[in-house]
Specification:
With 229 residues, this protein is α/β, with parallel strands linked by helices. Helix content is 42%, strand content 22%. The strands form 3 sheets. A 5-stranded parallel β-sheet has the order 2-1-3-4-5, sandwiched between helices. α3 (63-73) links the parallel β3 (51-55) and β4. The protein is elongated, with a radius of gyration of 19 Å. The chain starts with 5 loop residues before the first strand and ends with a strand. The model has no long low-confidence stretch (mean pLDDT 86). Residues 6-120 form the Response regulatory domain.
């Protein structure tokens, strides 16, 4: 089975970015799309990251420069560079800057997804020990992790189960409100209450990184591996 990866797609072409994100999400990965290196920098501190898919021609800092900087600061991070440039010296330059793979546009979504899965497997074998995940027991309403277990309220269990089952483990705010049976006038701020409680409980059972990532103007995404018992 292919590993579930935390991926960021850096692509300034909006339609192509959306297609790429949705294709990778359909393979079970947790994926966020951003339009520039600057936007990626804001994302790096908010979630664990396994792989970046980066276009060369970006506004501001270009993709090759970004690949070099990412590899210097995150040596275990996988980097796939995509570009319309197909000359050998362009490819060699990207590899010298730290790219793990260089794909020439147009890239089919099938090829990109296969490349991401293959690179993810290789990076996990070389760089990462097996992840110790979390489990949600819906019958006993408990969250279990490497450091133990803790009880959940019905509201917390509903929110977490919805995220685990969602494509790409990501939901918009209105979808959460619908799951909880709240009317829209309840407001987004009220949703942060169960999310904050869930974050604390994840910490109690061993979460190191942010397990529930707030996505501005969108909703939330699961930032760790959770299975439903």
């Amino acid at each position: 089975m292919d590993p579930c990866l935390n991926i960021v797609v850096v692509e300034d072409h909006e339609a192509l970015r959306i297609i790429t994100v949705e294709a990778l999400q359909s393979r079970g990965h947790r994926v966020i799309g951003v339009e520039s290196a600057e936007c990626l920098q804001e994302t790096l501190g908010n979630q664990p990251l396994d792989l970046v898919v980066v276009d060369v021609n970006l506004p501001g800092e270009d993709g090759v420069s970004l690949a070099r900087r990412l590899k210097q600061s995150h040596p275990d991070l996988g980097v796939i560079v995509v570009s319309v440039r197909d000359r050998l010296d362009d490819k060699l330059g990207a590899y010298e800057c730290g790219a793990d793979l260089y794909l020439t546009k147009p890239v089919s979504v099938e090829e990109l997804c296969a490349a991401a899965a293959a690179l993810g497997k290789r990076l996990q074998r070389v760089s990462h020990p097996p992840r110790r995940g979390f489990s949600l027991d819906l019958q006993q309403m408990r969250l279990r992790g490497p450091a133990g277990e803790t009880p959940l309220t019905a509201q917390e269990a509903t929110v977490l189960a919805a995220l685990v089952r969602a494509p790409g483990h990501r939901l918009e705010t209105w979808q959460f409100l619908e799951q909880l049976g709240w009317v829209d006038t309840t407001g987004k701020m009220a949703l942060e209450v169960p999310m904050s409680r869930l974050r604390r409980k994840f910490t109690l059972v061993g979460a190191a990184a942010n397990p529930l990532i707030a996505i501005r103007k969108h909703g939330y995404q699961l930032g760790c591996d959770v299975v439903i018992d």
